Amino acid sequence: MKKRIAQIGGLALIWFLFMQIPALSEVTVQKSSATWNKSATDILPASSVLKKKGILLMFMNPSGRPCQIQMAILEKHRGDIEQHYQIRFVNATNPSDRPLFYQFGVRGMPAIILLNDSGRVHHRFPPGIMDRNQLLQAINQP
Length: 142
Hints:
Layout (H helix, E strand, L loop, with lengths): L1 H35 L3 H4 L2 H5 L3 E7 L4 H12 L1 H4 L3 E7 L6 H7 L6 E5 L5 E4 L7 H8 L3
Parallel strand pairs: 1-2
Antiparallel strand pairs: 1-3, 3-4
């Protein structure tokens, strides 16, 4: 009899937790839809708008080797890049960054997207490692 009561108690706990899932997912959906609707200008920091600089979005997975190589290239040439664009790393492992992957349609990494000073896409690189010449050629285009 005690075993049966323990089973019923366990089922009640599972039922209670299951009933809480829709409430939690509604909160998550509402929270993410607010982020989902952000325009690209919401991503631009106020300082980039004031300086009329664009932003370079680098979509990455920090544990992926190609992303680490691309990050090293960006860090090495940061001075050249930051004359025109501010660099923003968008991390696949950071839940608050994930809506940006959907917003810009990024599926492969590393991926780099250049936004102009008004927040519109200026240039979209194909997924993969971009060398210094490819980056600077796109950055220097009017």
